[in-house]
Write a structure and sequence with these properties.
The chain is an all-alpha fold. The protein has one domain. 71% of the residues lie in helices and 0% in strands. The C terminus is likely disordered.
Length: 211
C-alpha cells in the first residue's frame, strides 16, 4: 500500500508539472502581441495597428484554441490514472513537447499559410500530439490496474482523430487550393468511431469530454 501511495503522489506531481508546462506555453502566446504595443507610435490608431497585424492576432487565437482543446483531451485521458507509470509519463512528456512547439507552426500559418512545410509542421504537430494521447488510452486499456477503477479508456476515438488529421494533411498537401479546410474532417471523427464500435458489435466505452 505504501508503494502504491508513493506512486500515486508521484503521478499527481507529474500531472501538476505537465499542467504547468501547458499554462506557461499558452501564456507565452500573447508575447508577440504585447511586443506590438511598442510600435503604436507608427500607426494612426490602435485600430490601425490591429488591422495591420491581424494575422498575428488570429495566430494567437488559433494557438490558444488548439492548445486548450488538446489540454482538455489530455485531462480526460488521464483523469482516472491513479499511480505513476513510466509509459504514461514518457507519452505525456512527448505530448508536452508538441504543446510547447505548436505556437511556432501556428505563427507560420499567419506568415506563410500556403507553404507546404508550414502545413506539414502545423497539422503534423497535431497528429503527433493526438497520437500520444491515443497511446495513453491504449496503455490504460491494457493495464487497468493503473487507474482508480472508474476509467473507461477508449483509444478508438483518438485513433479516429489521428486518421482524420492524416487524411486532412494528405489532402491539403495534394490539393493546396483546399488550404486548411480539410481539417473540418475532424467533425467526422466521432461518427466514424461510433460506426466502428457498431460494426464491432459493441458500444463505445467513453466519449471525449470535449464533445
Amino acid at each position: 500500500m505504501a508503494a502504491r501511495e508513493h506512486r500515486r503522489r508521484g503521478h499527481e506531481r507529474f500531472i501538476t508539472f505537465i499542467d504547468a508546462i501547458v499554462a506557461i506555453a499558452i501564456t507565452l502566446l500573447v508575447l508577440p502581441l504585447v511586443e506590438l504595443t511598442a510600435q503604436i507610435d507608427d500607426y494612426d490608431s490602435v485600430g490601425a495597428l490591429l488591422r495591420e497585424n491581424q494575422a498575428e492576432v488570429w495566430a494567437f487565437l488559433l494557438s490558444f484554441v488548439v492548445i486548450a482543446r488538446l489540454w482538455v483531451v489530455q485531462h480526460d485521458s488521464v483523469r482516472h490514472v491513479a499511480v505513476q507509470d513510466g509509459r504514461v509519463m514518457r507519452l505525456l512528456l512527448l505530448w508536452a513537447l508538441t504543446i510547447v512547439f505548436l505556437p511556432f507552426p501556428t505563427a507560420l500559418v499567419a506568415a506563410a499559410a500556403d507553404d507546404g512545410v508550414t502545413k506539414l509542421l502545423y497539422i503534423g504537430t497535431m497528429v503527433l500530439s493526438t497520437t500520444c494521447l491515443t497511446l495513453v488510452e491504449v496503455v490504460l486499456v491494457r493495464h487497468p490496474e493503473l487507474t482508480d477503477g472508474d476509467d473507461e479508456a477508449d483509444p478508438v476515438y483518438g485513433a479516429a482523430n489521428v486518421a482524420m488529421l492524416l487524411l486532412a494533411l494528405v489532402i491539403t498537401l495534394a490539393v493546396p487550393a483546399t488550404s486548411y479546410f480539410p481539417l473540418l474532417l475532424l467533425l467526422a471523427a466521432d461518427p466514424a468511431a461510433r460506426t466502428w464500435h457498431r460494426l464491432r458489435g459493441g458500444d463505445s466505452r467513453r466519449r471525449a469530454s470535449t464533445d
